[in-house]
Structure formats: structure tokens, C-alpha cells
């Protein structure tokens, strides 16, 4: 397994197009933690989903409708949320923006072989 070992992130790394107005950029990761920036166009959806990872998300730009379990709130720049493992969560982008996601352990499913 390859881990991103560079100690600095300069913002020029490649964006991965996930389709439907969503793209992702890796900041760094190892086997214990991963941080990614996720860019959303207006009206793009981060589909309701669950995973065994703990996730902390910070709204770096834009405005999002965030659902965690059965609770929905509007979050904007400077806000954030914590998604416990195995709890359904998702977002709808109300104003184009970026989320910074941190996961533990790292999201092996995000990595291409």
C-alpha cells in the first residue's frame, strides 16, 4: 500500500473528478488518518451514506444542507460536523463550496490501485 508521505501540501495536487459536480483532492494520509478537500458545485449532492470511519468535516467555503442520522442543518463557512461511525450522513450544496474531511482510519476505498 502506498501512503502519501510528503510533509507539506501546497494546494497544487491533482483534483479527482467524482462526477455530478463533485471533485476531491488529497491533502495527506497514512494508515491511521486521511484528510481530503471535496469541492462541490451548486446543487451537487454528497449522497446519504455510512461507513465505519469517524469523520470530521469543516466547511471551508460555501453553504451546505447537512443531514446526520435524522437531523438536518444548514452549515456555512466556518461551521463543521462530526459523523460517528456507521451513522448515515450526506450533504446538498446550496452555494458552491469546499469541505475539508478528516477520516480515521484512512479511507482505503478512496485510493486507486
Automatic annotation (TrEMBL):
Pfam family, one: Cupin_2
Domain Cupin type-2, residue spans: 37-95
Protein name: Cupin domain-containing protein
Source species of the chain: Chryseobacterium arachidis
